[in-house]
Specification:
The chain is an alpha+beta fold. It has two domains: 92 residues, GMP Synthetase, Chain A, domain 3 (2-Layer Sandwich); 71 residues. 50% of the residues lie in helices and 26% in strands. A three-stranded mixed β-sheet has the order 1-2-3. It has a three-stranded antiparallel β-sheet with strand order 4-5-6, with helices on one face. The chain is elongated, with a radius of gyration of 22 Å. The N and C termini lie far apart (64 Å). The model has no long low-confidence stretch (mean pLDDT 83). This is Quinolinate synthase. It comes from Paenibacillus cisolokensis. Keywords: Membrane, Transmembrane, Transmembrane helix.
Length: 179
């Protein structure tokens, strides 16, 4: 009977210690690491809402942008204002856009040209391909920007907007998570 009494306090202590350890780590990660990045996203021009998820290798930022947002500027601000939280992790943007079948159809017609330009690193072909689409589809407008990390494409058709961020150095499988 004595041995049963000793096992219960030991198990209880182990469970409480593990709870405090993991709870403390979770609280630290949310308040100290992700908190400042969430605050920066709330105050960032062009960002309607944002939610960063910090993993070991990546910072995945789920965004809803204003229709007039400058995608490259938003990315740049996230990287600079969230530098302490981001550290040496890669930043990936996942943008929630309004669903528009017509805009998706237009994007699918140029996707091969964009993929080829990204693969061959001939980035100047992307704006040229999108300009052709502007002529072929009335009301369609596209803009492109580039920096050291990504190619940014913003497409508009009426009230619908689609934002695409393509990493200049693709992940291992070369899959674009937000295309």
């Amino acid at each position: 009977m004595n041995s049963k009494l000793r096992i219960v306090p030991i198990m209880l202590t182990a469970v409480l210690s593990a709870g405090l350890l993991f709870g403390g780590w979770f609280l630290y990660k949310q308040v100290v690491v992700a908190g400042p990045l969430e605050e920066a996203l709330r105050e960032m021009p062009g960002v309607v809402s944002g939610n960063p998820v910090i993993d070991a290798d990546h910072v995945n930022v789920h965004l809803k942008l204003a229709p007039d947002a400058d995608l490259r500027e938003v990315y740049e601000r996230i990287v600079t204002q969230g530098a302490t939280a981001i550290g040496d992790r890669k930043v990936r943007l996942f943008i929630e856009d309004s669903e528009d079948a017509g805009l998706e159809t237009i994007w699918s017609t140029v996707l091969f040209d964009v993929a080829e330009a990204m693969e061959t690193r001939r980035y100047s072909k992307i704006p040229a391909a999108l300009k052709e689409l502007e002529q072929a589809y009335p009301g369609f407008k596209a803009s492109t920007e580039i920096d050291a990390d990504n190619v940014y494409i913003t497409m508009r058709r009426g009230d619908a907007v689609k934002h695409v961020v393509l990493p200049r150095i693709p992940d291992t499988l070369g899959v674009w998570p937000n295309a």
